[in-house]
Design goal:
Number of strands: 19
Distance between the termini: 33 Å
Bound molecules: alpha-D-glucopyranose
Low-confidence stretches: 8-28
Strand order of the largest sheet: 1-4-5-6-3-2-7-8-12-13
């Protein structure tokens, strides 16, 4: 590290209640509140286990998918237990929302070495809901639209991962567990175990690697090993796979434990069908693998308070869900028929989301008394297919080829059946969100869909990746929908299924503590 520049004071201004204003509101005979002294507070913080999440995106700052939601909501849930000092580090992309960016505090900068490169690394900080977020600034790497898809993504995330280890000494924050997510953070675990762990401050840091989707592994040509990733001879075997570099494989080898985002997916990725070529590595390391089902931010997705909805409602009174349905039909130009079930999909339009099943039988489905609403972007041939269908069936089909958070909530609340026929689904959050809004999921039994949706308890499921199996179950749901009394009970059970982080956060807690034994 060549230079380190620390900022001693921040430019942040906050409004605080004056001491006299606080005193005035306390009754003279009320018992004095027990305040912790600064020393006591420091002692509590010292006892807390330190967790550092390393990830490529996090809500509310930047999101391209479910990963961001999990980073944002799991870290908050863990911090709320008061047992952990939780911090998160992500790159400072130029697309990070301005409303937040303006509030970040600049902490200083350092220079990060990687092979022959020596790059600027600025550090910004922001505290939200008990979680401290750090943002790694380097305009050469991150001042671009979006998060991924660049020819030099390998170099960008190698720089990011190396910076994560470097800022630990800058911040004097050495986590007990460094929790890395997906291939973009894989190198942080690899650098820790091949380099930094030989330094005294880093030697006890444990690495947990969570796979949110095994499809994206970070494959690179072996020629780049030293030049790009700064990994040489002795450690080549860790990242080498099938005559290439595979960063996910490297992280699995290096970490103390690795996990997936549902128990079923942890099992599935041991097999060829799901592992995208990594099954031998997963099998060999299965002794340190576990699956923990994601939760959702149940306050962020709450039909009682959601301001995007046409009307608010609760699991005990769904009357206003009809208002949401009417509003949605009107907005999308569909006939306002209260008794025609709306089947919806909010999804990326890509094959592994099961769209091949949908395209195979959707015309058969459209012969039923249904309306179908699709929201999402993705592969051009799916986008074209659904747009064309909407032109041919304007009274039954609405294809919205956009990414729109507001409309997605109107769809979750305004539709009746939510379809998620994924070929593979590490966890999936949409089926949980749909449940929360009393919209009944129809899912294929895979990954987190299998773990979260139980037939007739809170949804419908089918086993095989088969279009007519899906159609059969959809028809069953459409027919059950007509039985208003039973359907209302099903809606209630779905909306009251517990998808909060409570239980899963506890499982992470146990996992962290086991790793530290
Ligand atoms: C990935 C997975 C999805 C999961 C999400 C959060 O996007 O594809 O199934 O819910 O990560 O873990």
């Amino acid at each position: 590290m060549a230079t380190v520049t620390k900022k001693t004071s921040t430019t942040k201004t906050t409004t605080k209640k004056t001491a006299s204003a606080t005193k005035a509101s306390v009754k003279p005979d009320a018992p004095k509140p027990v305040r912790k002294t600064v020393k006591e507070k420091a002692a509590v913080t010292a006892q807390k286990k330190k967790i550092l999440f390393v990830a490529s995106e996090a809500t509310p700052f930047i999101a391209t998918g479910g990963l961001a939601e999990v980073i944002g909501s799991l870290s908050t849930a863990l911090a709320a237990t008061k047992k952990f000092d939780v911090r998160v580090v992500i790159p400072l992309y130029s697309d990070i929302k301005k409303e937040y960016r303006e509030k970040f505090t600049y902490l200083g900068n350092l220079y990060v070495h990687l092979a022959w490169r020596n790059q600027y690394c600025g550090i910004f900080e922001y505290v939200k809901d008990g979680v401290t977020y750090y943002f790694i600034d380097n305009e050469f790497y991150f001042k671009r639209p979006g998060c991924y898809g660049y020819f030099d993504d390998g170099e960008r995330f190698a720089f990011f991962s190396r910076s994560v280890l470097e800022i630990m000494s800058f911040l004097n924050f050495y986590p007990d567990v460094m929790h890395c997510h997906d291939w973009q953070a894989a190198l942080a675990a690899i650098y820790l175990k091949t380099n930094y762990c030989f330094r005294p401050e880093y030697q006890f840091i444990r690495a947990l690697f969570t796979i949110h989707n095994i499809e994206y592994q970070g494959w690179y040509s072996l020629d780049l090993l030293g030049d790009l990733f700064d990994i040489y001879g002795t450690y080549q075997y860790l990242v080498e796979y099938k005559n290439s570099i595979n960063l996910m494989k490297g992280a699995i080898e290096c970490c103390e434990r690795f996990s997936t985002v549902s128990p079923k997916y942890a099992d599935e990725i041991k097999s060829e069908y799901y592992a995208h070529g990594l099954e031998p590595i997963v099998q060999r390391n299965a002794f340190k693998l576990c699956g923990i089902l994601n939760g959702i931010d149940v306050e962020g997705y709450n039909p009682e308070k959601d301001t995007h909805l046409y009307a608010n409602y609760t699991a005990n009174d769904f009357a206003n869900k009809a208002v949401c349905k009417k509003g949605l039909q009107k907005q999308l130009g569909l006939p306002q028929k209260p008794d025609t079930p709306i089947i919806s999909m909010v999804t990326r339009l890509v094959s592994h989301k099961g769209l091949d099943l949908v395209t195979a039988v959707i015309e058969e489905l459209l012969h039923e008394d249904v309306q179908i609403v699709i929201l999402g972007t993705g592969d051009a041939h799916f986008e074209g297919f659904f747009s064309d269908l909407a032109r041919r069936y304007p009274d039954k089909m609405s294809a919205n080829i956009i990414f729109n958070g507001d409309l997605s909530r109107k769809i979750y609340s305004g539709s009746d059946i939510f379809l998620m026929p994924s070929k593979s689904e590490p966890c999936g959050l949409s089926q949980m969100i749909a449940c929360r809004y009393g919209t009944i999921p129809v899912v294929r039994e895979t990954g987190g869909l299998y773990d979260s949706i139980k037939p007739l308890e809170n949804g419908y499921t089918f086993t095989n990746f088969n279009a007519h199996d899906m159609l059969f179950v959809l028809r069953k749901a459409i027919s059950d929908y007509k039985n208003k009394e039973e359907w209302a009970k099903l809606m209630y059970r779905a909306a009251t299924s517990d998808f909060s982080w409570g239980h899963s956060a506890q499982e992470y807690e146990t996992l962290y503590l086991n790793m530290l034994k």
